[in-house]
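Before the break, one more example. Copy the sequence into your notebook; we will annotate it together after we see the structure.
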Amino acid sequence: METKKRSGSSIGASSLLVIVVVVSLVCFAALSITSASADLRLSQKLAERTSTYYTACNEAQNTLKSLSTSFSSIYKDSISEDDYNQKIKKSFSDSLTFSYPINENQILQVSVSPLYPEDPSGDFLQITSWQIINIASPELDESLPVFQIE
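Here is what the structure looks like once it is written out:
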């Protein structure tokens, strides 16, 4: 009887294929974790920036509300438009521009001008500028994204 020789390459090829597939899956898993971690950090930074921006906006709105109330009381005490404008200039001798910090690199700057309404229920001020101003250059993160577990 003749015995047939089997080559061992078929057993080794399937083992090698399994090893390559497992290593590939581990690499893809590591890349997914790294990507998810980077997305989480970016989302946290954006949430913090959005929160600080809207905090500055709320402070500006509160200032505008109190300013409108002040202009309303000046309107009630004035007898003419010229008298109204003179009282506002006297009461608010400095500029009607306000700044609110957003972060160490940016501020929210709001400028208003007074209005003389036709009736007491009208608008007493007009927003002439509402802008974010960069006061410093931000530090750029130029580090390489290396696999880090936090």
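The longest strand covers residues 125-134. The mean pLDDT is 85. Try to locate both features in your own notes.
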